[in-house]
Please model this.
Amino acid sequence: MGIDLWIAIAVMSFLAVLAAALVATRLYSDTGQLTMLGLAMSASAMVLFLQYGSGQLFWARVIPVSAAIIYSNFASIFAAMAAGWAWRLPNIPKWRRATLATLLSIGSVIAILWPLLAIGLRPPPLGGDQWSKGVAKQTSWATCSPAAAATLFNGEGIEVSEAEMIPLCLTDYAGTPTLGLYRGVKLIANRHDRRVVLLDGGLTRLIADDDWPVLVSVGLPFGVEDRRYVEQWGWIPGMGHSVVILGRTTDGSFIVGDPSVGLEIWSQADLDLLWRGVGMRVE
Model:
């Protein structure tokens, strides 16, 4: 899977064990009030993080390394802390404390290993190397992101295929995690002495920069009244997709490499509606 992931797993495992040990030996009270509060807060933090913070691309700004998907999963630390407090719960039989602590410890391990476990549980398609006018075509519904990454690099003069990007991006049968896509782009960029720049500032900044190609995450929001996106162009509300903006036309429209269909022309209104505000370029 890559030495970067195994190093990150080792580091996060050490931090999780350290957090559990610190809680179990120092941050508890014999009366149980601090212990119960700590257990409740750490368990809540784990759930909230998984719901709202896990896997977001902004973590790559804080941790700009290829294994950001592992380093940024603080759910493992929260679960380990909860295990430490569970072991110190007062007035509860030891076997019950041990059972709860063990279950939380297993949750911490699963959180650390999840990108690899997901691939094992949902093996990815093999991918291919199909192109149309400079756009890598996705060979399955789950591989739009690796194909878009290949298109991005093709625009930078770097040859890479969808099939090569699939394992680097940690793509599985269900799709590609956002930080997995970042990993794949980061690894190829590093090989060629390039750097990955995350987009910010929205559409206005993107147009002002006028620096193409850029890989962007898009999707049709729920509740859009214009039925053309669904009925004529096949967009599914709520489903994420990856495309590459290759440049602009003389009338200000955008030349888009869509791995599902090939080259397209999008208006600014299309991009404003479909773009989710995140993406990256290689410099």
In short: Residues 52 and 170 are 21 Å apart (CA to CA).
